[in-house]
């Protein structure tokens, strides 16, 4: 690996840095964006139980808000449980927007790396081509410099693509995952609003 880095020349260093950042962000998002952490299975039933028992206190709401992203959305509904239906839905939508922003954390950086890595590899290719042309002189071609220029060009192109492809796959995966989480949270919140509205009618 060290020999490859040395052969690829200095343009490989920004790519190595980008690969380290991308790997760290992918691991962090894989750990954070877990369904059990974002959408705890029993949370909705527990919130409905709290509502029906009438035990809605600031401590209960705060604990719910700190439990999970779904808890943040449902706590907004609990805070406005005595408000009209439209007010409840508006509070849910506002908290949902904040949760969506939190879930999308680092995804912009990941997408930027996926888009930028091939360009960084292309930059290394250009540097290698410059070295190849620089090997031409009045005495003929310098074989060592020519070989180095070719290696710089090829290694950087390959490394840029090797970073971009998996990063793009994970970026698309995380985007789809966040969208599905947000939709499911909104559905559960609206379901809770329906429970509250039905209880008022009765």
From TrEMBL:
Q: Where in the cell is it found?
A: Cell membrane; Membrane
Ranges of residues in domain MotA/TolQ/ExbB proton channel: 68-186
For this UniProt entry, which segments traverse the membrane?
12-32, 106-130, 150-171
Q: What's a Pfam family in this record?
A: MotA_ExbB
Keyword annotations from UniProtKB, A to Z: Cell membrane, Membrane, Protein transport, Transmembrane, Transmembrane helix, Transport
Membrane-protein topology:
Multi-pass membrane protein
Protein known as:
MotA/TolQ/ExbB proton channel family protein
